[in-house]
Amino acid sequence: MKPCADLIVTNISSLLTLSGPERPRSGVEMSNLGIIPNAAMAISGDTVIWTGPVQKLAGAVDRHSATLTIDAENHAVLPGFVECHTHLVFGGTREDEFARKIAGVPYMQIAAEGGGIKRTVRDTRAASEADLMETGLQRIREALRLGITAIEIKSGYGLNMETERKILTVARQLAEQTPATLVTTFLGAHEIPVDRSREEYLDEVCEKMIPFVAREKLAEFCDVFCEKGVFSLDESERVLTTGIHYGLKPKIHADQLTPGGGAELASRMHAVSADHLDYTGPAGMKALADAGVVGVLLPGAVFFLGLNRFPAARDMIAANVPIALSTDFNPGSCMSLNIHLMMTIACTRCRMTIPETLTAVTHNAACAIDRQNRLGSLVPGKQADFVILDCPSVETIPYHFGHNHVKHVFCKGRSIVENGIVLPFQTP
């Protein structure tokens, strides 16, 4: 008996199914996009039920009186992009600091004057939940317009119990009020607040914040900024071990500014992902590959900060590290949700191929938030999150950079963006 479709997308120039193993993909696997030319796709409810050549559609799928058929107009279709590393909920912006930095004022001077992360912490502490909801909704609408259908949201701009709770509460409310799939990460160990000693704050994170976050189910993951001058390897291990004890899956900011052993720690802790990796060397790459930890590269931060050390993606791929890409959206080092631009930077500065970047922003990014069982590919049984482009080739995305080639976006089988316009949210 043929399955019956509620929605059929036909006349697809190329359908990127990303079919393949559910585990994080590495090496040559990252170049296999599971492309079906001249394709069609059928959906029932919020789930993909069939994909294949358009000429086989009639024999594979039944229709009912209300089945909706969409003509992709010989354009490409691919899974919705997965943003697996953002700091989306925060108060205030820092464009004036950016202007000062490019005029030659050192960051350390700006920080000494109360700027940098300290400023964002102050602004976030001062913001109401309503303020954070308003800006959060604006940012999610922008993300949807760019074809991003799943977003990880980290805390970390509170650095006290009250504000970390506020950030994660807002993120949870956003998940209830938007069609995108949102996951939350507790990043209380993002920095040492000015009103606590290192020892006091680390105790607060491990003895009060993590138990509270876990008990209230405010986050699924626990992250830590493992870096010289922030949290040491031992301190980071304590944070992640505590998180694991309370049921939070480990993630880690690793090797962003120095080769500090963060990748090796991520491997020992069996982290879901290790993020940044700008200074990760061969030993760290081997450890990540052996443990199957997803390496999340954030080249937009390197670009925006005007640095020259981009992550060695070619070496990582050769070492069989599964690579994901994300924006690191935040007010200090990457004030952009443009995942398309990140693909271009990854191609030009990290020397990733276009197929590798597409795997990195879909399937592997879903693995980096432990959602590969539902997101990141378009095969029967997966969630119907997909993007219809305004062009026949996905190669146009990183090539024609600075332009949004997303025409239509569907989340859970429902139209969310039509002709580049975000529709009013109609969450269940």
User: Taking all residues together, what is the mean pLDDT?
Assistant: 96
Which CATH first-tier class of the largest domain would you pick? Alpha Beta
Cα shape: globular
Estimated share of beta-strand residues: 25-35%
Give the uncertain stretches in residue-range form.
none
Spatially, the strands of the biggest sheet line up as: 3-2-1-4-13-14-15-16
What does the radius of gyration come to?
21 Å
Q: Into how many domains do the coordinates divide?
A: 2
CATH superfamily of the largest domain: Metal-dependent hydrolases
**Structural class from helices and strands?**
alpha/beta
Q: What distance separates the N and C termini?
A: 30 Å
Question: What is the multimeric organization of the chains shown?
Answer: single chain
CATH topology name of the largest domain, in short, is TIM Barrel
The major beta sheet can be summarized as: 8 strands, mixed
The helix count comes to 16
Secondary structure tally: strands: 16
Measured as a percent range, the helix fraction is: 25-40%
* Architecture per CATH nomenclature, i.e. the level-2 architecture of the largest domain: Alpha-Beta Barrel
Structural account:
- The protein is 35% helix and 25% strand.
- It has 16 helices and 16 strands.
- The protein has helices at 57-60, 95-102, 107-112, 117-126, 129-145, 161-177, 198-215, 233-245, 262-268, 282-291, 299-304, 313-318, 339-349, 354-360, 363-367, 396-399, and strands spanning 4-16, 35-44, 47-53, 62-79, 81-83, 148-154, 181-189, 221-226, 249-254, 273-276, 294-297, 323-325, 386-389, 406-411, 414-418, 421-422.
- The strands form 2 sheets. The chain has an 8-stranded mixed beta sheet. Strands 5-6-7-8-9-10-11-12 form an 8-stranded parallel beta sheet.
- Helix 5 (129-145) packs across helix 6 (161-177), helix 7 (198-215) runs parallel beside helix 8 (233-245) and helix 9 (262-268) packs parallel to helix 10 (282-291).
- The chain starts with a strand and ends in a 6-residue tail after the last strand.
